[in-house]
Amino acid sequence: MGGRLKREPIDFHYIPAELRWVDELLVNWARWQHGGLGLSTSPGFELYRPDNYERTPRKAIDVLSAMRVQESIKRLDERHRKALQWSYIQPTNPVRRARELKVSTRGLHELVIEAMRILAGVLTPEGECVVKYANA
């Protein structure tokens, strides 16, 4: 049937096991970026809780770690920075962000993973910078 290849869907939530600690740092950074509240809730739904909702304390934001992650992200090239911002801060339509970065949607996911690998080389699981920058 027509010569079109079936594309495999992309799981944008997939994080390689060896980078899960970087994901935790980035989630902490994203919460800090959003003022500690996480992603905003649609008006009218702020107080909604499903029947099976259990109140569990949220993990406190590690502000110092978030600031170190921010400094490390600032040193990434623009495409990696924008890919991380899309993935953690403003998760909008991936096709639109991919088009903006002139990559495929698969390429967008690869940019996110590449950025995480770069951060894994300059941060520790505690959010400490292991690379000293000339202007730091």
Name the helicity range.
40-55%
Q: Segments where pLDDT lies below 50 for 5+ residues?
A: none
The number of E-state strands comes to: 0
Strand-residue fraction?
under 5%
Evaluate the radius of gyration.
17 Å
Structural class: mainly alpha
SSE pattern: HHHHH
Number of helices: 5
* Average pLDDT score: 82
- C-alpha end-to-end distance: 58 Å
Largest sheet geometry: none
Describe the global form. Answer: globular
Sequence-ordered SSE layout with sheet pairings:
Layout: H1 20-33, H2 63-74, H3 78-89, H4 94-101, H5 105-122
Folded structure, characterized:
With about 140 residues, the chain is mainly alpha-helical. Helix content is about 45%, strand content about 0%. The chain contains five helices and no strands. The radius of gyration is 17 Å and the shape is globular. The mean pLDDT is about 80.
Features:
mainly alpha; 5 helices; single chain
Task: Describe what is shown at a glance.
This protein is mainly alpha-helical and 136 residues long.
